[in-house]
Design a protein that fits this description.
The structure holds two protein chains of two kinds.
Chain A: H1 2-5, H2 13-34, H3 43-76, H4 82-90, H5 97-107, H6 113-118, H7 127-152, H8 157-164, H9 169-177, H10 182-198, H11 201-206, H12 211-220, H13 224-247, H14 265-297, H15 304-334, H16 336-350, H17 353-366, H18 374-398, H19 402-410, H20 415-444, H21 447-452, H22 460-470, H23 477-507
Helix pairs in contact in A: 2-13, 2-15, 2-16, 2-17, 3-7, 3-10, 5-7, 5-14, 7-10, 8-9, 10-13, 12-13, 13-17, 14-23, 15-16, 15-18, 15-20, 16-18, 17-18, 18-20, 19-20, 20-23, 22-23
Chain B: H1 3-16, H2 22-25, E1 44-52, H3 56-68, E2 72-80, H4 81-93, E3 101-104, H5 107-115, H6 124-128, E4 140-152, E5 175-177, H7 182-195, H8 197-208, E6 211-213, H9 217-226, E7 231-232, E8 234-235, H10 236-245, E9 251-254, E10 264-271, H11 276-285, H12 288-298, E11 301-302, H13 332-341
The chains are: A mainly alpha, B alpha/beta.
């Protein structure tokens, strides 16, 4: 496309530029709001900052401590039912962390579910340690999956050489393998950091004053300018993490046959004993707690319209996101300027939902026809999750062989016909995958939905939140289980992508 | 009884509310209060901002009103009372109007709205239904609540409860509180108005050193009952509701005398739009049925003339609340700033 157009701008540029500018509007709004009489920094901020950073650092450390050994095991160890273990160990990704926080909070502590059912007194899970535990349980799979992907791309011959030279297995893993997957670990760790920074539900339920929670408190007092100032401070940290992430480059090692470990029966047992608690806490416990609540209270209070509202709004968001993603993806392929525009749209993904909510509430107040409408909520979803759609549309479009379109044109097809008969059918899979990802993320989104939803518009996530706040825990079972189910579908999508990557390495 | 079982009982109460309201009429005292039968049917669309705090009980009342008035399209936006009050003010500043009525669980939030000049005046006959002392031109108190000191009866006796809430700062009791809860913040506002900012700040600091924080005041009362703390700060009805589900609960109500510790506060409703529909909607909340439902199930104090007070609460005239104009409690911003400054929020 860029060849034939010569010096003129590619056709997708103007549209992509508009969308890219739209994507950075929220930040502009925040800057405008914050300049309006907000206190820049006080002692309270310092506490919030340190809580946020501590939670981030502890969660990253915890995720690395759990994720890296699990990556080694799932990548190299010959275990029965390997595929099943991988799916189970990645499954916490399918559970929004606020659901985990909710159920862990309810299960532990005096008078909690565990004490009621089994009579064992349990320590309470709350505060910074509680939040760290929850965030670690639900974000270690990021580290596990990125590390595993790097491990699978390594050649075993270096380890074999080390072994031949007399190094033990443990020592060679530590000194030969791990340094080569450091970038994989770092990539996962940065994802964890980003996720921790943007999460709202977990710190709120665990009662830790992180940026997201304090922004919500300020928003509730309608201290919009203070909320905006805090949002910008949070964005600075997010921006830093995003920058670090962009600096992490995968290593380019020529792949070979990868390592295989044959653990003894005792070692297998030891692995199971060490990692069983992770699965029990992250998956079994929440499902059990919801099961108990469902059995005890039934489906009282739940209305099918909540599920419909969730699906409806998320579907609209997915549709709009894909439509907007097409010009952006094409611009990104067309040239450097387009690539820059695409980068701009990625900003939204780094903006936590609560920050997006704060900005768009203000936009809505200025544009009353948007305030408290479904349109504004969908816009928030689109701005946040557009990069998911762009990424997936772009990667399929990049794989497209341009000579096919040229051949069609040569044979007399109009550009329109060539698009309809060649380009579209070949990229539709990427569009569907992108739409599915946006749909699932929008379904789970909590704070922006709370702030922007129309009056009386209750989704699974907001209903769950309301039941938590009112103390009617039992009624959270149905929306909780539905959300987990929906997210499990998203995980299935992700894992199928990962399996493809594995084939690329081993199949050739 | 355990925490969940108690909540379960609350949910069962929800089922009762589905029964026709007329059954509950038989409980009413000499009916001076208006009955729903006498009210016009509600028709049209109305948006209610509902400051929550009472779990499902207000929802049950609204559901009953909906059932009775099939032509009413009632839209409800829920949120923390203070948050909704702030939203209403911000919306009006931006020239956006969404709410027609605002039902707040706290009079401080009501004051915020009427200070901003957004509340519509109420008709005289509606105001006349309310108890003397609770008649305001721009808003209708729906129910009242008293600040109390629920205490664990295994650990303390009534004589050990100090007469003054200020004296608690010098005691060695362990204390449970919920500083994020709107009623607690109104209580601190009352203390600020009565004792001054500095005394209040010192008091908060001293209590903080021995206090355990809970998410809500129901949590406080349950913690007192479990013996996690000796005594707590909570509205009266949480204790009465707990004792209703569990008659042998180890918790009793303590009252201070003539200070913020026994403030009588009210939740109320106001109209933000002109017209009959918002006013008639408010009338429904002041009916004998709703008032006695809130008294018998929620243990709130009915503020309509002729409705019976809840069981288990000492008569209002034996309590000596401080003299304070409830709408003054709207002065919430300085309270929040003060609480944040001493690090309790």
């Amino acid at each position: 496309m860029s060849l034939t157009l010569g010096r003129r701008w590619p056709a997708s540029y103007p549209l992509a530029l508009v969308i890219a500018l739209l994507a950075i509007v929220p930040v502009g709004v925040l800057v405008g709001l914050a300049s309006d009489s907000a206190e820049l920094f006080d002692a309270h901020n310092l506490r919030v900052l340190s809580n946020t950073l501590l939670l981030m650092v502890f969660t990253v450390l915890g995720s690395v401590a759990i994720g890296v050994p699990l990556a080694l095991i799932t990548a190299y160890a010959q275990l029965p039912w390997r595929r099943l273990w991988l799916i189970l160990l990645a499954a916490p990704l399918a559970i929004p962390s606020y659901i985990g926080a909710f159920t862990l909070y309810a299960a532990f502590g005096r008078g909690g579910e565990i004490q009621q059912l089994l009579g064992w007194p349990m320590p309470a899970v709350n505060g910074l340690p509680g939040a760290t535990l929850v965030m670690t349980l639900y974000s270690y799979p990021f580290v596990m999956l990125t590390t595993r992907a790097s491990l699978l791309s390594l050649d075993a011959s270096l380890v074999n050489a080390a072994r031949t030279l007399g190094m033990s297995i443990a020592a060679s893993l530590w000194r030969v393998v791990l340094p080569r997957v450091a970038t994989g670990i770092a990539a996962g760790a940065l994802l964890v950091a980003l996720y921790t920074l943007s999460d709202f539900g977990t710190p709120a339920i665990m009662r830790v004053d992180t940026f997201t929670r304090v922004i919500f408190v300020e928003y509730n007092a309608f201290g919009l300018s203070q909320a905006a100032m805090l949002s910008l401070q949070l964005l600075v940290i997010v921006g830093l993490v995003l920058f670090l992430e962009s600096r992490v480059r995968g290593n380019k090692e020529r792949p070979g046959r990868h390592l295989t470990l044959w653990p003894s029966r005792g070692q297998k047992l030891l692995m199971a004993l060490v990692f069983a608690p992770v699965l029990v806490l992250a998956i079994v416990l929440p499902l059990l707690v919801f099961g108990v609540w469902l059995w005890r209270e039934g489906t009282a209070g739940f209305d099918a319209s909540y599920a419909w509202n969730s699906a409806h709004a998320s579907f609209l968001a997915a549709l709009v996101a894909v439509v907007l993603a097409i010009p952006v993806a094409h611009a990104a392929i067309a040239g450097r300027a387009g690539r820059f525009m695409e980068r701009l749209t990625y900003f939204g993904f780094g903006v936590p939902g609560i920050v997006m909510g704060t900005a768009l509430v203000y936009v809505g107040l200025q544009l009353p026809f948007l305030y408290q409408t479904l349109g504004l909520l969908v816009l928030a979803y689109v701005l946040r999750f557009l990069p998911l759609a762009v990424g997936s549309v772009r990667s399929t479009a990049e794989g497209l062989d341009p000579s096919l379109v040229k051949a069609a044109r040569l044979l007399g097809a109009s550009p329109r016909e060539a698009f309809q008969r060649i380009t579209l059918p070949l990229t539709i899979r990427g569009m569907v995958a992108g739409a599915a990802l946006v749909f699932l993320e929008a379904m789970r989104e909590l704070p922006a939905t709370l702030m922007l939803g129309p009056t009386g518009f209750e989704t699974l996530a907001t209903y769950l939140w309301r039941m938590y706040e009112a103390g009617y825990f039992g009624r959270a079972a149905i929306p909780g289980l539905l959300l987990v189910l929906m997210s499990a579908l998203g995980l299935a999508l992700m894992l199928s992508g990962e399996r493809r990557a594995e084939f690329d390495v081993t199949g050739k | 009884m355990q925490r969940r079982a108690f909540l379960h009982n609350l949910a069962a109460v929800g089922a009762i509310s589905c029964l026709p309201m007329s059954i509950q009429r038989s409980f009413a005292a000499q009916a001076v209060a208006v009955s729903v039968e006498q009210l016009p049917k509600l028709e049209g669309e109305i948006t209610l901002y509902l400051g929550r705090g009472e779990g499902g009980l207000y929802e049950n009342v609204l559901e009953a009103i909906r059932k009775r008035n099939p032509k009413l399209n009632l839209k409800i936006r829920r949120g923390a009372t203070a948050a909704l009050a702030n939203s209403i003010v911000a919306e009006s500043k931006a020239g956006v109007k969404r709410a027609d009525v605002f039902w707040a669980v706290d009079s401080g939030a009501i004051g915020l709205i009427s200070d901003a000049g957004l509340a519509r005046p109420l008709p005289a006959d509606l105001i006349a239904q309310l108890r003397p002392g609770f008649q305001y031109p721009q808003w209708a108190p729906v129910t009242g609540r008293v600040r109390t000191l629920p205490y664990n009866t295994d650990r303390l006796t009534a004589e050990q409860i100090p007469d003054s809430v200020m004296a608690l700062a010098d005691s060695d009791l362990s204390i449970g509180w919920a500083p994020a809860y709107a009623s607690f913040q109104s209580f601190v506002t009352a203390m600020r108005l009565l004792e001054g900012d500095k005394v209040t700040a010192d008091w908060l600091r001293a209590i903080k050193a021995r206090a355990t924080t809970y998410a809500g005041e129901l949590g406080v009362v349950m913690a007192v009952e479990r013996g996690e703390v000796d005594l707590g700060f909570a509205n009266h009805y949480y204790t009465l509701r707990l004792k209703n589900g569990k008659p042998d609960a180890k918790v009793a109500l303590g009252f201070t005398k003539n200070d913020a510790g026994c403030l009588v506060n009210a939740g109320g409703i106001l109209a933000l739009s002109d017209g009959d529909l918002p006013i008639n909607f408010i009338r429904y909340l002041l009916t004998e049925e709703v008032q006695s439902y809130l008294a018998s199930e929620a243990y709130e104090i009915p503020l309509v003339e002729g409705a019976k007070p809840p069981q288990g609460l000492p008569p209002l005239d034996t309590i000596s609340p401080p003299k304070i104009d409830l709408t003054q409690l709207a002065d919430l911003r300085p309270t929040l700033n003060l609480m944040r400054r001493v690090g309790v929020l």
